[in-house]
Amino acid sequence: MVALAHRLAVVTRTGDVYGSEIVGRTLRPVVQLNTPMPSRLQFRLRSFIERDSTDELLEGANDEVFLAALGTDSADVVVGADGKPVAATITSPAIGDVSADPIRNAWREHPHVLMEFDLPRASDWPRSFVVTLLFVEHDEAELAESFRELESKVGEKVKAAAEAGATAAAGALVGLAVGSVIPGIGPAVGAAVGSLAGLAYDGIIKAIMDGLDNDVFTPRPIQLLVGEPAQIRHHPNIGTPQHIDIVEHDASYTLEYDWALVG
């Protein structure tokens, strides 16, 4: 047994390493420290429930709901050419109609992978992952154009928030090469992007709806923060079904999702 900072670690005869973090006078549960990193973290859709429709009674009882997502990984916020943090996002393809039984019923046995993050890549920890969900209820307008507008304008907001969070957390980046991972920014990036809602998007949503006839919903961020690689296989929010409620435009939906590991 050896002491490593605030942790006690044990090395077995087979070479496996187990450790327990010391918090005050207590020890947290023992976890394996040398477990290979999973290859991917997935954000999956498990069910979609439509409780109330956006449509008036004469227009029909069911909505045609389509969704896409923007992904933010704190590892994707790196040193830019100007010496300041620069962020990138991942964009998922739009899928739908997710309120139609042929699509959502299949998720019960095979959850739909909406977004994937590359885990073994160079990064600092704690590391944050945020999936910002984009919902559009299809009425009359060109659906693809609604998503192009959303992805562009919401993506700009998300990148700006991630860069601002990283700037506040990192301080001076003197000596770091262009493209370098920025240490210590994971929680701040996740919090900055995860807090975007409501007023941050009001102008964007209004502009898109004024130009197109589809009902565009306020983007919904879902954040996952992982303290260190050894914790990822034991994270309480990974492998656990969760849900988010969407109540807007007189509609009421519930989306069930989970985070899953591959490899």
Secondary structure layout plus pairing:
Elements: E1 2-4, E2 7-11, E3 17-23, E4 26-27, E5 31-32, E6 40-52, E7 65-73, E8 77-79, E9 85-87, E10 90-91, E11 95-96, H1 101-104, E12 112-118, E13 127-137, H2 143-170, H3 186-194, H4 199-211, E14 215-216, E15 220-226, E16 242-248, E17 251-262
Antiparallel strand pairs: 1-2, 2-3, 3-4, 3-5, 6-12, 6-17, 7-10, 7-11, 7-13, 8-9, 13-14, 13-15, 16-17
- Uncertain runs are none
How many β strands by DSSP? 17
Over all CA atoms, what is the radius of gyration? 21 Å
**Domain tally:** 2
| First-last Cα distance | 29 Å
Strand content: 35-45%
Q: What percent of the residues sit in helical stretches (DSSP H or I)?
A: 10-25%
The ordered string of helix (H) and strand (E) elements is EEEEEEEEEEEHEEHHHEEEE
Looking at the structure, what is the overall shape?
globular
Average residue pLDDT: 89
- Describe the main β-sheet briefly: 6 strands, antiparallel
Question: What count of helical segments does DSSP give?
Answer: 4
SSE-based structural type: alpha+beta
Write a brief caption for the model:
With 263 residues, the protein is α+β, with helices and mostly antiparallel strands. The protein has helices at 101-104, 143-170, 186-194, 199-211; strands at residues 2-4, 7-11, 17-23, 26-27, 31-32, 40-52, 65-73, 77-79, 85-87, 90-91, 95-96, 112-118, 127-137, 215-216, 220-226, 242-248, 251-262.
